[in-house]
Protein 1
Amino acid sequence: MSSRTRRAAAAAALALLTLAGALPAHAAKAAASKAAASRGGRDSVLVRVGREAITWREVQRRIDELPEPYRTNYGTVDGRKQFLDHLIEERVWLLGARKHGVDTRPDVRQQIEQSERDLVIRTYVNEVMAANSSPSDSEAKAYYDAHLTDYRLSPTVTMSHILLKSEAEAKRIRQWAQGGQDWKKLVSRYSVDSLTRANGGTLGVVTREGIFAGIGAQPALAESAFALANRTGPNAGVGAVGGPVKTGRGWHVFKIDDARPESTRPFEQVRTIILRQMGQSRSQELYRQRLAAEKTSLGFSADSAVIKNFISQRKTAQELFRQGQEAGVPTARIAAYRQLLEDYPHSEVSAQAQFMIGFIYSEELKNYDEAGKAFHALLDNYPKSELADSARWMVEHMRTEEAPPFITNPDSARAARPGQSPRPSGKP
């Protein structure tokens, strides 16, 4: 008898015993589960962690959910074993975390809710935006025809030069070049421009604005080049030699290597750009329309007065003080402390802010006049402050070697009197 036949016979016998009352229902159920497990069925339990089971079906589903490049790693015996071990570890840590209430902590709940919110919104918006149709080539061509000026190409001249120290020398070199002498040899022998001498004096492409890549803005040189390139007759156009033109660098003799008139970029060259721009514009418009429709369908209202109060609310004194502590450059810290004093002249941290202004001026900026003003302002406005003695000490000693170094302490800006420790502290 084959193994399949034996399993079938056992199942039939089990069913008869159950119907006959020979086996209790729960025993029959357990026996059935055991039989299914022995067959390796997809509903069979592989392991149990506490009251939770990891089944064959669950493990296979998790493998099937993986991207194809990763999924193939778990198609072997060793791969499936490794993946099962991973799921066991995952389940142990998850249940352990729940047992210790990690999932009920406010900060964790906040992150879980945020992740859930982001996923739901992203999924719905993607479904909504899927209705956006891509622009066609005919629409892109119509847009191109209506906006031809956006695709205009400015006229350009490609040129090279020989830089000389005097006008007389420049005229002589120009005459030789116009007479047919080898341009590159003239450049190599006579040009004083070390940057272009080795490559035939090449200045590259320039527009009418006259911005050269190597020698900066030279509008007079560019204007002369365009005039020569557009002239008709002998010694004009491409190949013509012109000059000399004087700039702040010296005297230039130049040659027109190429000239291109104003033109329009062909549609095929900008087609992809136009399609992308139109697609983005269309997506933005659809998004705005659907957002407005969702607001209407849900019932949207806004209280402009409350909104105005909310967005224009002032920072608290403590927030401004913390901003001063955390700001980077000294001037930014001073600005935050001054804002605090302007908005909250009598807060519990106002005297500290006033002290820190003086301390930054004294110890960081070395502006003792402004530091003195700040410390005197503390003595005038907050004479009963515990920082008053420290302010007096700073006024007397800040220009000497006795002035204290910084002691980082984000929570306070207190200073000690001479002979005490610590000395003025606080992160300005």
Note: The longest strand covers residues 250-260.
Protein 2
Amino acid sequence: MTSRNKFVDWNRPVLLTVFLMGAVPAAHAQAPAAAPPREGVPTLSGYMEMHLNKVQDQPAAVDLHRFVLMIGHSFSDRLKFWSEVEVEHAFVEGGEETGEVAVEQAYLDLVINRRLNLRAGMVLVPVGIQNERHEPPTFNGVERTFVDSVIVPTTWRDTGAGLFGDLGGGLSYRAYVLPGLDAAGFSAEEGIKGGRQQGSRADISEPAIAGRLEWRRGGLTSGASFWRGGSGFGLIRLDIETPAVGVGSLDARYRLGRHELRGQWSMVNIGGAGDLNRALQAQSGISPNIASRLMGAYAEAATRVSPNAWAHEVVVFGRYELFDTQNKMPEGFLPRQEFQRSALVVGATYYPDPDVAFKFDVVRERNKSSVVRAPWQLNVGVGWWF
């Protein structure tokens, strides 16, 4: 894309989907899944990522973005525990936005058989690629994708309970009942992100269901996932119908030799967005301009360029993203064009070890606005897990 006038029409997501399903993947090093807890022996794991970001016309900033410890324990061969505690931005002081300490996962698994098992606690919502799998060595780029940050608000987690299992033939599933969202936190720029309850005294008067079906065969991993629930409990004093939210996502990853292709298409529908905007405007005096539909998609190609004789690996990649939080507006509202966005990301990753990644990329954002210009950005980072 060479200019804002060539911004891709959002009514053509099928083209990206076709590209994804025909993908051929990059064989860059990816850390294996953490080992399951052994009976009676606690398991310790973790990851860290540090970033240097230079945004156009702003000073460069370095940030210890995340430090995470994971602890697991097997009470028996049928009862297992897993947890993840995260510190963001190095430290937390009071309630200001200097950092965050959060329980990202904390759940018990009751193993019944391969096909049917129970899970309860703080779980990751199984939508998209990165929400459940976001350790630094497992993805290209210093920052997580825009689609997995703006459309699907990674990391999205909440208290819940449900089922999971392996159905055979490479097919597996996860399905949970979770609290709904708080529509009072929705926005034009970040969609439903501000509506996550994240397990903190979560109101479950309007519960949601979420699930993912995943299929693996050879170098291909493909998935379909969803979330659907109410989001009006924060608006109980307002005379509007409860806004229902639906999230759907398709994704695919494919590896062949040195190469990998991956991609994702995600959509969010917000029912009654017009009434929601008017109700929130009556409270604050400002319309949040929440869309009735958000859309995002990306396609990424990567290849390992280091010689086979090298013990270390170097991977180069390119990714194109579309992320539009104003894709369809309710009647009577116009889209804010600066939030109809795209991005081209190119970069490289160096793996001195499969579990350690040194990253570099350049991001060129664009939007449909002729007034608000999207910035370019330079990112350098390092991340590891064990």
Note: DSSP finds three helices and 16 strands in the chain.
Protein 3
Amino acid sequence: MPTLRRLSVIRAAALVLLLLPPATGFSAAPPPSDVLADESPAAFSLVPGRDPDGWNFLLEPYAWSPGLYGQIGLKDLPVAQMNQSPVDILKTLDWGLFVRGEARRGRWGLLGDGFFAQFSTSADPGQGLYRNITTLSQQSMVSLALAYRVLTDRRFFVDVYAGGRYNYLGASASADVNRAGVEALSEGIIDRAIAKLGPRLLARYPGLKNVPASTLQQAKELGVTKLSDRIEEKLPKHVEADRWWIDPIVGLRGQVNFTRWLFAAAQADAGGFGAGSQVTVNTQATIGVNFSRNIGLEAGYRYMYIDYDKDNFLYDVNMPGVFAGLIFKF
């Protein structure tokens, strides 16, 4: 009986110990809430930094291979119809430099984007007087804009921005004269003159009827040669021109962070409004990957349109093409 009583006491004591909370000295203290927040997976921001009021910077050298579709006209040369694919442009690209950057503090940011490129292109003038027009083009653009972050969250942001875009276009064009086309034009002019004035000449000079046909043909050929020489001499064969202007621009851009590593970005702006070009449009959409808080890569599509037509200089072109950039954030 005493043995049973001892067993009952031991069981009761064990039950009490199981029901009691663990002693404070042996319990693991819960981690502070800020530690948990710091360890939770947060999406990388476009410009990293724990201090939202501190300065953050971004530098992105990039490559852009646009096509060239539209019209280019220089002075007295005929307007050249451009139909160059991105692959064609890459073949004719002499060299280029492309880079964009950003400085941000809080909700405010300063955005910069610029490129300089030189192309050598060949185009069909679309008429018989010229065989070919070869153009050497230099193009540069520098954009500077002030941005304000209207929406911000760990997973996305939206900025509005406004500023200006400096444009420079320099081109020299050389045209090869098509002698056969010039002679065909001259012969047509002389034939129309003969058809119109021939009856009057015969009426005034009846003796022309007695001139052998071979002599008249020789006279006509001589006239075609002389007129062709004069026309070819007057045709422009080489011109150079350059223009620069500044377009006001307004735009919108944003980014969505799908994970800490994967994001999508887009932007669009419009400008010109007759201040420089009649209208200019710039749009871009990319998918990117963050390798770390300081290095990322994005790739996608960029499209620009420029409509400039002033002072006998026409540049009305669409430029769509693939875009890729390496991002450095600090």
Note: Residues 179-204 form the longest helix (26 residues).
Protein 4
Amino acid sequence: MNDLMEKIVSLAKRRGFIFPGSEIYGGLANSWDYGPLGVQLKKNITDEWWKIFVERRSDMYGIDPAIIMNPKVWEASGHVAEFSDPLVECKSCHQRFRADQLEGACPNCDGTEFSEAKNFNLLFKTFIGPLEDSSTTAYLRGELAQAMFVDYPQIIQTMRPALPFGIAAQGKVFRNEITPGNFIFRTREFNLMEFEYFVAESDWEKYFEYWREKMHDWLTHLGVTPAHVHEHEIPDGERAHYSKRTIDFEYDYPFGQKELYGLAYRTDFDLARHTKATGNDWGALPHVIEPTFGVDRSVLVTLLEAYHEEEVEGETRVVLRFPKWLAPVHVAVLPLSKKDELAKPTQEIAASLQSHFRVEYDETQSIGKRYRRQDEIGTPYCITVDFETLNDKKVTVRDRDTMQQERVDISLLADYLSDKLRS
């Protein structure tokens, strides 16, 4: 694993962002649990995305669809027949790999002989009820999109939208694929944010470009350096079966330039398949632009972008420079001493700020070590309550990025922090 990735994985585990799944039983390959800071970081991303792309728009309608749908949905969409990866097996160690991602020798044993590639369906099968046979087969959803397509007539009926409009969803999807590791980059269960934007066929190119630009704006808002993002036009023969045009937004990960997000023009493929399969007449079918945002990859990229090391007084300071809105903790409130005469007023200040900001109270170890700990988790501001506070009713506010300190009146603290966190 790349040195930077090793540092990110180590920090994520040590500071409560992301843990190996079921670790006490030896774990499970490419299974990860989000810890207290990681789940907050992920929630900050999904909440902000929802505000920007759903709540603040009059042309977007959100849904929260079921994970298990009628299996006929996946038959009609083509996923049962065509949602697959080409796999090869190493003849030496019998490990299986995606043929399109294998370069040269076997990464497990350095063997050079492989079986012929065979397609392997990515849908996770499950069963409904006590019997396990073909009559009770169902699937965990392999994408969010199909729920938005099958809910299309209900949205038309209940919300009465005019073109163009979108249906948006967030949630977990499942793909039974061979994963190459690389932390949370590719896992069998992962989170997506996406919407299907319904347009007149004649307008598809205009809205494809519109959402292309909006996706770049979102990445900038997330704190991603534009030079680290590249567009890759997927050529004919390599696109998904439903797509007429697809652009992958790729990122410069430590392990190479790989996919982050996707933008696809799905034509009216899905709506047409579902109207045909159900025998329903939904009238003239619009065409669809689909921007897809990977949540877990967003988390990984924000960690990679935020991670910095710098020399401070002969020591290495590790700091996560998240955009302030994104930081899992906004403010750390720290008493200079654990003595009751400081701890009690410090706890009162923390409690008063908690209704406005994400706050952490910390009284263990030296103040310097506590600053470093907050730097490592990306906390923008630290408030220190010292013995002078008891007399002048002021606290010291330390800035994460500059490490500069300022004395602020306790009565002005909430407004001061609000202004700083908006900047």
Note: The domain at 3-67+143-304 is CATH 3.30.930.10 (BirA Bifunctional Protein; domain 2).
